[in-house]
Amino acid sequence: MPATESYQMAAHLIAWGALAILCYAYFGYPVLLALAVRLRRPAPVQRGDARPSVTVVVAAWNEAPTIAAKIENTLSQDYPPDLLDMIVVSDASTDGTDDIVAGYAARTERVSLLRTEGRQGKSVALNLGVPTAKGEIVVLTDADATFEPDAVAQLAKPFADPRVGAVSGQLRYRTSGGLDEGEGAYWHYEQRVKQLESSLHSLLGANGSIYAIRRNLFRPLRALDVNDLRIPYEVLLQGYLVVLEPAARSYEAPAPSLWAEYRRKVRIMSRAIATVLLLVGRTVARRRMAFLWQLISHKLFREIQAIFFAGMLFGAGWGTALGDGVLSLFFAGQLALYLLGAVAWAFPRAVPRLLRLAAHFDMIALASFAALALWLTGRARATWQPARTAQG
After folding, report:
1. CB under 8 Å to 384, separation ≥6 — which residues?
2. Is residue 176 predicted with pLDDT exceeding 60?
3. Are 215 and 270 in the same domain?
4. Angle between helices 305-321 and 325-346 (to 10 degrees)
5. H or E segment at 245?
6. Both 236 and 347 in a single domain?
7. 37 and 58: one domain?
8. Cβ atoms within 10 Å of 367's Cβ, excluding its own
9. Surface-to-core class of residue 102, CB atoms within 10 Å of its CB (0-12 exposed, 13-18 middle, 19+ buried)
10. Among 389, 375, 355, 123, which residue's Cα sits nearest to residue 255?
11. Entry pTM
12. N or C, which end of the chain has less CB nearby within 10 Å?
């Protein structure tokens, strides 16, 4: 076989192989999940009206504008007051957050304040807060999340089934104009995947805005761990079910711009790579092959998708240089998609909906490259910034 033909075959393998993995991660995996649910038909989770004691734990950094509303929202939950308390862990806040929380703590024993010295990130804050919780169930949430009045009660219902170790609620975005088309479509897609995973009793991660675990199942986190992935998955590895409870609803404001969402994804994805790799190792050691399939398909391929984007560009570009007509079209199509997305990113309100979807695709691709670079160079950060302070 001539050398040129061999190179062209290699270019095709790289380009189409990378595309196939991305298509599998985003489309093939949900299809297989749906088939598995239909074939397995697992016994449904038993939901009851039990009222276990609950502690809501919030990690906060400079949340003075929101923390009072969060405390009021928690204390006003439709749940027995003597069974519900709250811990706010301040990650070395400097804006008066601690004073606001301390004011509530002075008036009611249902609110407590803990503080880390020196910003260490949300995971370290949770390591401090969760073990001190009094509740049998610990609800983890964000300072800017607003629960529906019955959210805690709805979260508690699946714990009537002793097989259940963690429950994820449903995040919704509060905005008069609705989500950006790209982020909105992706969010609805992710919720469907979570529903399918929950139906298999193997939800891999939780909605960080609202989820709960049995306190005794908590395992300490590393500073860079993504808590709403690591904590539920550790529960899963201990032999308990992790399920979705859509009736437990929390509301947050979406990112104010695509740039803000890009920065948020870079921060989360750069940390998630390390978390997923750790969990892959733990899953292999425990020989939980079904969980390994889900972890790789849903999480690992997503977190390292920059490699597959690069593979598509490199393979198609190489084929173009070799004069391969098919790969030339594939290469031109990729460049056109990125260019159109860049235009839509720059002028989001002046372009059609399909171009805004392209802008979101560009954002995901760029975020995955930036996150992988941060992880490879050891520059991923454990600390976070409230969404309201992000600039467009």
Report:
1. 61, 121, 122, 267
2. no
3. no
4. 130
5. strand 241-252
6. no
7. no
8. 22
9. middle
10. 389
11. 0.89
12. N
What is the pLDDT averaged over residues 354-383?
84
Domain limit, last residue, from 226, 254, 282: 254
* Strand 146-147 versus strand 241-252 pairing type: antiparallel
DSSP-H helix ranges across the chain: 3-23, 29-40, 67-75, 97-107, 122-129, 151-156, 181-199, 227-237, 258-285, 289-294, 301-303, 305-321, 325-346, 353-376
Q: Are 11 and 319 in contact (CB under 8 A)?
A: yes
CB-CB contact of 232 with 213 (8 Å): yes
What are the backbone angles phi and psi of residue 100, rounded to the nearest 5°?
-65, -45
- The contacts of residue 72 (CB under 8 Å, 6+ apart) are none
CA distances from 227 to 9, 141, 155, 263 (A): 43, 11, 18, 18
175 pLDDT band, cuts 50/70/90, is: low
Tokens of 4: 């040129």
Same structural domain, 196 and 71? yes
Domain annotation covers residue 46: no
Confidence class of residue 49 from pLDDT cuts 50, 70 and 90?
A: confident
For residue 184, pLDDT over 70 is answered with no
d(CA 83, CA 317): 62
Three-point CA angle 118, 119, 120, nearest 5°: 110
Report residue 282 as tokens: 């733990």
Q: Is the model's pLDDT at 113 over the cut of 70?
A: yes
Residue 391's Cβ-count burial label (10 Å; 0-12, 13-18, 19+) is exposed
pLDDT for the residue numbered 236: 94
d(CA 119, CA 138): 23
SS (H, E, C) 170-220: EEEECCCCCCCHHHHHHHHHHHHHHHHHHHCCCCCCCCCCEEEEEHHHCCC
- What would the two tokens of residue 14 be? 């790289």
Q: What are phi and psi of 247, to 5 degrees?
A: -75, -15
Q: How far apart are CA 7 and CA 9, in angstroms?
A: 5
Q: Is residue 119 part of a domain?
A: yes
Which string of DSSP letters, residue by residue, matches 342-359?
A: HHHHHSTTSS-HHHHHHH
